[in-house]
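As practice, study what follows.
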Amino acid sequence: MSNARNLLNPLEQKWVVDRIRKAESETTGELKVHLEDYAEDDQFNRAAELFAALGMHKTKYRNGVLIYIAAKDHEFVVMGDMAINQVVPEGFWEEMANILHNDFHMNDYFEGIAKVIRRVGVVLKTHFPKKDTDTNEITDEISFG
């Protein structure tokens, strides 16, 4: 697997950001994709550290979702804040990580990320529909470690 910065070509990176913006246009939820080569720690601990560092826990409705990918480690964590954790079915986050794992195994990096954004977006839209007063609290750009 290539390094995190080259995992997606520039057009695919733009498409990911476009999909985040589309999903967020229908919800108060916030989505963030973070790519890095290696998890410096256990992938769940690293994702939790990034969740805090990126301010995902500071959103107004506590419904932020982080899609964390350690490309060279082949590790994937999809993590939500308190409010969304209360409404997703048991095993939902693991299912999202498995989607990433399966598509990455077939070298279809963009498709895996796009599927997860789409599925998480549906859950956010269902439980946290857009409000007129909502603002974009977390940048939609992909972050890199």
Summary: The chain has one domain: 4-144. The mean pLDDT is 95. The CA atoms of residues 22 and 121 lie 9 Å apart. The first strand starts at residue 30 and ends at 36.
